[in-house]
Amino acid sequence: SERWNWRERVRASVCFGLLHIANIWYSFAAGIALSVTGFGFLLVYLWYYRKYRSQIIATAAAATVHALYNAIALSLIAVVLAIDIAKLL
Fold first, then answer.
1. Cα dihedral across residues 9, 10, 11, 15: positive or negative
2. Reduced to 3 states, what is the DSSP secondary structure of residue 48?
3. Residue 31 above 90 pLDDT?
């Protein structure tokens, strides 16, 4: 992505979102939201790549942000499920 133009970067982000909607848990709207999130991960990658000129550091930074995003999302899902279960009891 270091040498891509902005259209190629947006296309890659849309592909990121479309790959996620292939999973039955995600709707089309969620896929679009994940495309935007994927674009954010791409921007993190590019920022670190430009700063350090290292694909390893840039990939590690983007992967760390992605993992943090996933941890927050899964935590929120767990809280919602816990509340729903508590309402049933």
1. positive
2. helix
3. no
CA quadruple 71, 74, 80, 84: dihedral sign: negative
**At a CB cut-off of 8 Å and minimum separation 6, what does 52 contact?**
58
What is the token pair recorded at 32?
A: 């679009």
Q: What is the pLDDT of residues 45-71, one digit of tens each?
A: 999 999 999 999 999 999 999 999 999
| Residue 17 and residue 27 in contact, taking contact as beta carbons nearer than 8 Å | no
pTM: 0.74
| HEC-encoded secondary structure of 64-82 | HHHHHHHHHHHHHHHHHHH
Q: Given the structure tokens 């767990």, which residue do they identify?
A: 78
CA angle, corner 85, sides to 79 and 87, nearest 5? 105
Please name the residues in contact with 39: beta carbons below 8 A apart, sequence gap of 6 or more.
9, 10, 13, 16
Whether pLDDT at 21 is above 80: no
